[in-house]
Structure formats: C-alpha cells, structure tokens
C-alpha cells in the first residue's frame, strides 16, 4: 500500500508538471535579420511595449562602426507586435533600452550611449527619450549627473517609487570601477544617494522596492569569481547589507510575484560554450534556485518581466534558431512558479 501511494504521488507530480508545461507559451515576436538584443517590457496606456537594441552584430556594424539603434515594438493584445519607433543617434551605440513610466505619465526609454573610435570604447554617456502617447518619441539626449559625470557612465535601469526614480550607475573613476545609487524626479537629472560597496567590476544592476520601502538590488560582477551580489537597504538607502549569490549573472532582472517571492532571469554560464537563458525563484534573502531553462542558445539573455493578470510574461533574446539574435516572448501561468522557492 505504501509503495502504491508513493507511485500515485509520483504520477500525480509528473502529470501536474506536464500540465504546467503545456500552459507555457513561447513565441518569436521579432526577427528582421539584424542582431536584436537586451530587452525591456512594459504596459503603458493599455498597450504592451517591448524594446531592444538592433544592430549588425553584438557591437560593430559591417563598416566597423558601433551605431546600434533602439527598436520599440507595440502590441494591443500581447500576441501581435508591430514596430512603433527606432531611436538612433549619430556616432552613438544606443544599448539596453530600458522602459519605465515617469511620475507625470510619460513612457521613458533609458539607453546606454557608447562612443567608439577605431573600435575602441572611449566614452559612455547615458541617453534618454520620452513619449507622451507611446507613438511619438523625443530625440535621445544625455542625462545629467548633478554630482558630476565621469564620461564613462552607464545608468542601466531606473525603478520608480512614487515621484522618485532610483538607478545604479556604474562607471570608471581614475581607473577604478565603481557603482553608485542615484535618484531622479524627472528622468533627466540625477543626484547621488551613495557609492555602493561592491567590488570586482560591478555593472548591470536591477532595483526593486518592496511595499515596506525596503530596496533590493541584484548586481552583476565581471572579475574575481564573478558571482552576483544581492543587496538590501532601508530608506534613505545609504547603508546596505550585501551577500554573494551562488551564480554568475548576465543581464539580470527580477520581479516581485508574491510576499517574499520573486521571479528572476539571467544568462546561465553553467556550460561556458553553450550559454542559456534561465528563470529562477527566490526570496528577500537572495536565495535563488533555477526552475526553468528557456529555449535559447548562443548570444542570449537580458530578460524582462511583466505580470499580467494571472500570467508572467518574459521577453528575452536568443540565437538558437537564427544566425543573429531574435526577440522572444514567453508566457507562464503565475502558478507555474508558486511553490518552487
């Protein structure tokens, strides 16, 4: 009887897993032959927007120049996607366009602005564009750091909390790699909150703010053991507690999906010659575990999340089906992730 009970329980678990897998939808939403990468996803004025960098390759074009553009798609239903904007700026490589909504109700596109000379990176000036209607976007202009810019700055993402937006700016200062927390009220001008105590070439960072105003941060690091850092802080966010995560990050993002429950995505480096994009679940203590491997390969990762009703939407890019990277959108029942942390 005991063996029969165990067998029934096992079969029930398998059937449940198969049922959940059948509810997962993964669809390519953009492939125009270019290298399309580094996604962001948001709902604005009842429509869905997905942004990403578009170029000849990961960095340089066929002419040896780095002048990537920021493509923005729009959808009424999350199924059918159409191009709505292509942001560009002469002599700039506009990278990692991140979408957010400003306190005055504008769609904001924050981009890295890399400048190359003879294929050598010489400057980084973050750029920003705004749209009031989700159709017409302003020309990209540089943001301003009120406490001074290094000329090698990259504000990778802004997360808004009420009337204030927060972001982690990583930069080079006198040959030293640093990362700082900055804040803004308009998306254009930024004040220093604090320099973060994260070493080993910190860079891409995602910030989320809990209902009790605690701030969480996931930071990619590129030297040493390269494991990500997980930080937590209370207002005014000057003092931080950090812990080393158990995995290396690449294009990390995470979203709160319940009380003390988060869904995250990043690049997997488990097999160095065969990168994948993976999803994880975790908690406020930074304990994460892998729960799903997205169909992916080659140059891949940089997921973005949107919770829509009882579904979790995940945009990402991958080369597993095409010579150059294409853009994909995966949809999961929120229940797929519950109980997996």
Quick structural summary:
By secondary structure, the protein is mainly β. It has one helix at 2-22; strands at residues 25-30, 35-44, 47-55, 69-75, 81-87, 93-101, 107-117, 120-124, 127-131, 141-142, 144-145, 153-161, 164-173, 176-184, 189-195, 202-209, 215-221, 227-233, 241-248, 253-258, 261-268, 276-282, 288-294, 301-308, 311-318, 326-333.
List the helices and strands and how they pair.
Elements: H1 2-22, E1 25-30, E2 35-44, E3 47-55, E4 69-75, E5 81-87, E6 93-101, E7 107-117, E8 120-124, E9 127-131, E10 141-142, E11 144-145, E12 153-161, E13 164-173, E14 176-184, E15 189-195, E16 202-209, E17 215-221, E18 227-233, E19 241-248, E20 253-258, E21 261-268, E22 276-282, E23 288-294, E24 301-308, E25 311-318, E26 326-333
Structure write-up:
By secondary structure, the protein is mostly beta strands. 6% of the residues lie in helices and 56% in strands. It starts with a helix and ends in an 8-residue tail after the last strand. The chain is built from 1 helix and 26 strands.
Percent in helix: under 10%
Are there runs of 5+ residues with pLDDT below 50, and where?
2-19
What general form does the structure show?
A: globular
Major β-sheet profile: 5 strands, antiparallel
Mind telling me the C-alpha Rg? 20 Å
Q: What share of the residues does DSSP label as strand, in percent?
A: over 45%
Class by alpha and beta content = mainly beta
Number of domains: 1
- Compute the average pLDDT: 93
**Helix-strand pattern, N to C?**
HEEEEEEEEEEEEEEEEEEEEEEEEEE
CATH topology type:
Neuraminidase
Number of strands: 26
CA distance, first residue to last residue: 31 Å
Number of helices: 1
Indicate the CATH class.
Mainly Beta
Based on the structure given, which CATH architecture is correct? Answer: 6 Propeller
């Amino acid at each position: 009887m005991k063996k029969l009970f165990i067998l029934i329980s096992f079969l029930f678990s398998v059937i449940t897993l198969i049922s959940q897998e059948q509810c997962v939808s993964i669809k390519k939403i953009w492939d125009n032959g270019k290298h399309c990468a580094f996604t962001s996803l948001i709902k604005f004025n009842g429509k869905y927007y997905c942004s990403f960098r578009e170029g000849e390759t990961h960095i340089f074009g066929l002419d040896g120049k780095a002048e990537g553009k920021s493509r923005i798609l729009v959808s009424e239903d999350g199924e059918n996607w159409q191009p709505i904007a292509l942001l560009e700026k002469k002599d700039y490589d506009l990278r990692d366009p991140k979408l957010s909504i400003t306190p005055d109700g504008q769609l904001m596109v924050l981009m890295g602005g890399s400048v190359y000379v003879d294929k050598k990176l010489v400057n980084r000036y973050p750029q920003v564009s705004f749209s009031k209607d989700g159709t017409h976007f302003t020309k990209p202009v540089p943001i301003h750091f009120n406490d001074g810019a290094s000329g090698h700055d990259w504000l990778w993402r802004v997360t808004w909390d009420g009337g204030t937006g927060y972001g982690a700016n990583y930069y080079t200062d006198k040959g030293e790699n640093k990362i700082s927390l900055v804040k803004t009220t308009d998306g254009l001008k930024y004040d220093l909150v604090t320099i973060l105590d994260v070493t080993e070439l910190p860079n891409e960072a995602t910030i989320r703010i809990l209902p009790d105003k605690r701030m969480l941060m996931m930071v990619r690091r590129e030297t040493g053991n390269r494991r990500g850092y997980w930080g937590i802080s209370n207002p005014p966010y000057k003092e931080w507690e950090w812990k080393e995560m158990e995995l290396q990050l690449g294009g990390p993002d995470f979203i709160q999906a319940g009380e003390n429950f988060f869904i995250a995505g990043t690049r997997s480096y488990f097999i160095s010659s065969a990168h994948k994009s993976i999803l994880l679940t975790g908690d406020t203590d930074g304990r994460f575990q892998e729960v799903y491997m997205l169909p992916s390969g080659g140059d891949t990762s940089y997921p973005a999340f949107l919770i829509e009703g009882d579904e979790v939407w995940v945009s990402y890019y991958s080369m597993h089906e095409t010579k150059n990277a294409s853009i994909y959108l995966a949809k999961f029942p929120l229940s797929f992730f519950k109980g997996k942390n």
